[in-house]
Amino acid sequence: TSQTLDISVGGMTCASCVARVERALAQVPGVRSATVNLATESARVVAAPGDDVDARLRRAVRTAGYEPRTAA
Ligand code: 9UX
Hints:
Low-confidence stretches: none
Bound molecules: dioxo(di-mu-sulfide)dimolybdenum
Number of strands: 4
Largest sheet: 4 strands, antiparallel
Strand content: 35-45%
């Protein structure tokens, strides 16, 4: 089974930003797919069940230089 998480991501302005965020999210343990939508400033992540996945994803977004916001 998997969980789907939506995260609002601020600070992205171009396609390279999108690629950076997708890469950062994909590296979080348990992530099966990460898709970022620039127009909606959000990321949809499918991940294995696990502790604190949402917090780990948010940390990855911030470390990559963008702003995780409220759950989308
Ligand atoms: Mo280009 Mo997106 O510097 O920040 S990667 S606008």
